Amino acid sequence: MSRAFYSMGILSILYYLLIVIHTHNWKATFARFWAFFGVLQFVVGFGVERMAKWLYLPFQIGFTVAFLVFLAVEILILSGMIPSSVDDFFHHYYFRGMCER
């Protein structure tokens, strides 16, 4: 199980670097979240290796609930990015682009 946390830590830190390199903003709060999350995954992975066996099930349940909450929030964010109709799409992207020229 600790390998999964180490892998998530590496991926989170790589994602942080990708965001920072792309935006050229080292102080973005959103980017800092991913750096913190990556370090936290390393700490949790280290702790899981030394955790008592009876704590595995409560830990897995808590982590699964936290992941499902995170997934629900991400779905809500992404669904808010989808235009509600074709008219909204053209108004937002096409006409907005014409006005900015």
Mean pLDDT: 78
Estimate the strand proportion: under 5%
Distance between the termini: 53 Å
Helix content, binned percent: over 70%
Number of helices: 4
| Structural class designation | mainly alpha
Q: Major β-sheet, in short?
A: none
The total strand number stands at 0
Q: What does the overall shape look like?
A: flat
Element pattern in H and E: HHHH
Multimerization state: single chain
Low-confidence stretches: none
Instruction: Please state the CA-atom Rg, rounded to the nearest Å.
Output: 19 Å
Task: Describe it.
- The protein has 101 residues and is mostly helical.
- The protein has four helices and no strands.
- Helix 1 packs antiparallel against helix 2 (29-49).
- The protein starts with a helix and ends with a helix.
- 7% of the residues are buried.
